[in-house]
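User: Hey, my collaborator sent me this sequence without any context and asked if I could get a structure. I don't really work with proteins. Can you help?
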Amino acid sequence: MQFPDPPMVRALCSLLVISHHFQTVNAAEGFKVIGPDGPVVTVLGGDAELPCRLSPPLSAEHMQVRWYRSRFDSHVHLYENGMDQNKGQIPEYRGRTELIKSHISNGSVSLRIHSVELRDEGSYNCFFWSDPYYEEATLELKVAALGTAPVISFNDHQDRGIRAVCESTGWYPEPEVTWRQEDGQSLTSLSETETQEHNGLFNIKTSLLMRTNKYGKISCRIRNIILSEERETVIPISDAFFQRVSRWVVSLSIILGSGLTICGLLVALVLYHSRKERKEKANLSAEVTNLSAEVTNLSAEVKSLSAELEWRRCCSYAVDVTLDPETAHPWLLLTDAGKTVKPGGIGEDLLFNLLRFDVFLPFVLGREGFTSGRHYWEVEVGDGRLWQLGVCRDSVRRKGRITRSPEEGYWAMELWYGGKYRALTSPETKLRLSESPRAVGIFLDYEAGEVSFYDAENKSHLFTFSDTFSDPLLPYFCTLDDPLRIRPVPGWE
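Assistant: No problem. I've predicted the 3D structure and written it out in structure-token form, which is a compact way to encode the shape of the chain:
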């Protein structure tokens, strides 16, 4: 290998010194800090990246890089002496920030904020300091949340028509709400919208009054204006259903407007026609009877439709529930990856476990605990003759004698000896069911303090507990004969 002669070595060294001096001179001459052109948008609960860079591109490895909000001395993140500094960091950002330094040699850094919350929204300052010069830029972070899928229900024959109600929760910021008919024409001008704020998020309830069935289908569309994303639910309006409503509502709206009941309406019709012409009494009685029957059928149809829509609303909150073997009674056997429980345990003495039930009735709980929100799951009971389903507090007693009631932390229903269905209230409530459910849906609304049960096959409501919850709640299962299987919840068709 041939080494360069001494004059060449001196020239290379001089070039390196000049290059280093050029970068130092640039830093000494000052710099600018540049942020993004517009706000940075991120989804609630996700990660946000706030970019910031030097101009001209200079290495910031030995500079101080400080991210702060309103107060300089309370930083969101601080990089100094080549290291991240935790001292003085705002408490709510501890463990949630990260400085992306992959391009710091070119003066480009990004602040990553994990698990973004609503309070993270607002202005941030990106500050660079290289003694004696410093500069900063201001960035804007916007947080957005996409709410739940809209759920449409109906209120029967209100204000001479049918009122459709659309509800959705968990939006931020306040979204746009639009009603449309099948051809895309807006119906929003005919609607009323209420907005309620809960924990910083917006819950939407909007209603649309329909007096004629010229729509075919209606849709409720809710749009997040920051994310430019929306959720929409479309539902057909049955001609036969609407005609039954409009036929008697329109023709008799004046009498109904006076506040008379259906019974009073029938009496008024009979008196009017009997005074006018007694010869038509027989025909009038027949007409009134038919009208009464039609109204009864209409109310039953509306009630059935409302029940199905309520069940579908519950389905939109479906969760994946798995049985917890640590809690299973020794008489029980768990199969199907924790989705099925049946009698079959050999009942041997297992290692003592505070979580396990060892009472007379064989219980097992779900792994998932709920401390807020709405949750729905379904359990196939088949032809089982002895079972219990519901929720219980995580803290319930699991040894010795147990009383199953809300006072003891259980909200459940059961099928017991003799084909008796009961809600385990105190005292127990007998349930008179038109048919035996082969699958039961359980819906927990934690904030509303409700646990509801549904026949998941015919989509009918069975029973609802109303209470106040403060402890974690767990799915609860018990069987003495046939298997219970947690099944996937069907979505909208």
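In plain terms: Confidence is low (pLDDT under 50) at residues 1-28, 244-261. You can pass these tokens on to your collaborator as they are.
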